[in-house]
Amino acid sequence: MGIDRSFLNKPKEEMTPAEFKLMILEPEKDSDHICWGCKYFKPVIKNSQFPPADIIGWCKKIHWPFFWCVPEHRIVKKCYAYEEIK
């Protein structure tokens, strides 16, 4: 469920840029959305006061240049814009 955080045991020098970003930007919530593994997903950061309570993040690819909000209670299982984080 959510982001695979098994890489946190690796030394910082061995992490990929994507893994390092995920280590620094800890998300506020966790859910079953496919979005967590997508490189275009921008999660709500822990202790952030800006977004509404039911938003887990935004998709930076759908509806560009405006971001598509990903709500917590509408689980996204499939997405045409999905690209795995490498």
Offer a concise description of the structure.
It contains one helix and three strands; from the N terminus they run αβββ. The protein has one helix spanning 17-24, and strands at 41-43, 55-59, 68-71.
- How large, in whole angstroms, is the Cα Rg? 13 Å
Report, as a whole number of angstroms, the end-to-end distance.
18 Å
Number of domains: 1
Helix content: under 10%
Shape designation: globular
Mean pLDDT: 81
The residue ranges in which pLDDT falls below 50 over 5 or more consecutive positions are: none
Classify the secondary structure makeup into a structural class. mainly beta
Number of distinct beta strands: 3
Q: N-to-C SSE series?
A: HEEE
SS field, number of helical segments: 1
Strand content: 5-15%
The neighbouring-strand order within the major sheet is 1-2-3
Q: How would a crystallographer describe the biggest sheet?
A: 3 strands, antiparallel
